[in-house]
Amino acid sequence: MIFDLSEDHVMMRKMVRDFAENECAAGAEERDEKEEFPREIWNKLAELGLAGITFPEKYGGVEADYLSYAIAVEELSRVDASVGVTVSAHSSLCANPIYLFGTEEQKQKYLVPLASGEKMGAFGLTEPMAGSDASGTRTTAVKDGDDYIINGTKIFITNAYEADTYVVTAQMDKSKGNKGIAAFILEKGMPGFSFGKKEKKMGIRSSATYELVFDNVRVPGENLLGQEGQGFKIAMVTLDFGRIGIASQALGIAQGAYEQARKYAKERVQFGQPIAHFQANQFKLADMATQIEAARLLVYQAAYLATQHKPVSKASAMAKLHASETAMWVTTQAVQMHGGYGYTREYPVERMMRDAKITEIYEGTSEVQRIVIGSHILKE
Ligand code: CAA
């Protein structure tokens, strides 16, 4: 597949790169250190339309394609992966399922303020006993008149506490397995809906990660997303698209670390010459650039397929698998090339290496991506 980036894509990259370098770069290290959520950055990027890139204008979005979205998340993550995932989780995991499965009323009420960035979104799927086995949800939803009563706990929820709107899954009939699960739209502030512990993480430390606690939360029937029993499918489809966002995040982290390593190799003098003159380092840089380019092709291909409304499950799993493993490998090499300095917080590659690790874990571990890819290729 040949990617001929349009003028719009080139403009999107330039706009987001300028924004990331001018607004995100300077404070990234301090936010990481203090675990400080980038609220001001969110407000500014929402003004630029980055909270609703793929959604139609009539729902508050900018009606651009998935490639524009991938480029935007890549460019934000090249500088600060915590900002990248904030945008990705909001758009892919909350606004998108409402766009894909919501009623017109739900779209007007919830998608419009999400896509404009007036509100922020999050997605509650993972639980203490339901991680990779996402259908093992123990959060329950019981019908009570026209309403549903939700009880349970979700963990590791990106954007939680900061977000206003939550797409959450719950089991309605255990005997039906994944077909007993339903998805709901919840609002911060609903009685009985609170936040548990804030996670102290290895990386993406300035992104918000909290537990969600539901104690007899009464959710109106109009907040059921899709049909009863459709929740697992909604979650899987949501993740098919979401993985494009995480793949883009990983791609951006890898690109950022590679650029840092290349710059350092040209400047750092040892044995009387820049270390870039040593073939060992040239080979490393060559391998980094090649892996990143391969990852970029997979990510952009998945984004292209999403825009074309073609099946995206296998392509997004491949993109996420390769991009996240590339991010981990490239950032590790970048730290290595910086030597002792790379292990300190004086240089950003240390943060990038910590940030890269999560891309191999969330929205499905690398092992889960291989399960998804494997199940598709065996059916072909
Ligand atoms: N689209 C539509 N339907 C799908 C689907 C998809 N992509 N994937 C599965 N389904 C359907 C299947 O067709 C099947 O339907 P039938 O029963 O009618 O045949 C049903 O769902 C069950 O499918 P499986 O038997 O394949 O399901 P499984 O229980 O074996 O699980 C899995 C498969 C791939 C491991 C899945 O559980 C999974 O993706 N796990 C990982 C969960 C995950 O990614 N969690 C991330 C949390 S979110 C997060 O991380 C956010 C963040 O912080 C940023």
Automatic annotation (TrEMBL):
It comes from the Bacteria. Its cofactor is FAD. Pfam families: Acyl-CoA_dh_1, Acyl-CoA_dh_M, Acyl-CoA_dh_N. PROSITE patterns: ACYL_COA_DH_1, ACYL_COA_DH_2. Residues 229-377 form the Acyl-CoA dehydrogenase/oxidase C-terminal domain. Keywords: FAD, Flavoprotein, Oxidoreductase. One of its GO terms (molecular function) is flavin adenine dinucleotide binding. Belongs to the acyl-CoA dehydrogenase family. This is Acyl-CoA dehydrogenase.
